[in-house]
Amino acid sequence: MASSLTRAMSAPIPDDGYSTGDLVPHGWAPGGYLCRACPDCGEGYSGDKRCRRCRACAVKSLEARRDRPQWQSGHKGIPTDRQVWAYFYVGTSDEDDVLLLRGVSGEDGEVFTVEHEGKPWGRDGHVVCWIDVEERPTLSVEAVEAAVASLGTRAFYYSGGVDHAVEDWLHREVLRAVADGHQDAPAIAAAALKSRELKFSRYCG
Ligand SMILES: [Zn+2]
Questions:
Q1: Angstrom distances, CA of residue 120 to CA of 57, 85, 99, 165
Q2: Distance from Cα 69 to the centre of ligand 1, integer Å
Q3: Between vectors from CA 183 to CA 18 and to CA 175, what angle results, nearest 5°?
Q4: Do residues 91 and 181 share a domain?
Q5: pLDDT (tens digit, 9 = 90+) per residue, 100-158?
Q6: pLDDT tens, position by position, 51-107
Q7: pTM
Q8: Are residues 10 and 100 located together in one domain of the fold?
Q9: What's the domain count of the chain?
Q10: Are residues 60 and 154 both part of a single domain?
Q11: Ligand 1 centroid to residue 143 C-alpha, Å
Q12: Which of 17, 38, 67 is where one domain is finished?
């Protein structure tokens, strides 16, 4: 134990470009408190008394977060060789206008092939936003921001009506999530309301 504390005290300050401000959200801040064992790696380290992990593990946590797949707005960059999750505009009357689907997108994001009762089913519509993860994603602030960013960007002949429908769906979906006690309720509500600042046709015809 003494040796790991000695190592912690004499460890050089790494020059990796990460500031204290970058690392505090990931559980480390500088300070003279000597912790015997980081919960992640077991090494002794020095830092602020309220640290949750050592500096190296805080860097790892930050990099893992930076590298994680993120929601992308529209269909640009969507892989067409494998399944992704997407909020997909289907615009039918007996379902929601936008569905969270897992499937393979076409090049232009206007056909999304899902598996339905063991058979491929190409849905027509368009990709509102997408994320390249395995597990079904939950409605997050990033997802809402990506959906809002997709509004008013298309020049399709029907874009006004589609954007209007997507906006209505988004507001309904976020209200439902808030009513269900979403952990980031104020943030997803604020992100959804940003759509009202956008100028696009809200004419439904
Ligand atoms: Zn550690």
A1: 44, 16, 17, 26
A2: 24
A3: 125
A4: yes
A5: 999 999 999 999 999 999 999 999 999 999 999 999 999 999 999 999 999 987 655 45
A6: 999 999 999 999 998 888 999 999 999 999 999 999 999 987 677 899 999 999 999
A7: 0.73
A8: no
A9: 2
A10: no
A11: 31
A12: 67
Secondary structure (DSSP) of 71-125: -EESSTT--SSS-EEEEEE---SSS-SEEEEEEEE-TTSSEEEEEETTEEEEEES
Give the distance (Å) from ligand 1 centre to CA of residue 59.
Answer: 9
Non-local (6+) Cβ contacts of 161 within 8 A are: 201, 203, 204, 205
CA 40 – ligand 1 centroid, Å: 5
Range of the domain at 6: 2-67
Question: Which residues lie across from 105 on neighbouring strands?
Answer: 112
DSSP 138: P
Is residue 38 in a domain?
Answer: yes
Cα distance between residue 46 and residue 111, in whole Å? 54
Q: From 46, 67, 88, give the residue that closes a domain.
A: 67
CA of 28 to the centre of ligand 1 (A): 10
Q: Could you tell me if 124 and 163 lie in one domain?
A: yes
Instruction: Tell me how far the alpha carbon of residue 52 lies from the centroid of ligand 1, in angstroms.
Output: 9
Residues 87, 137: Cα–Cα separation, whole Å: 10
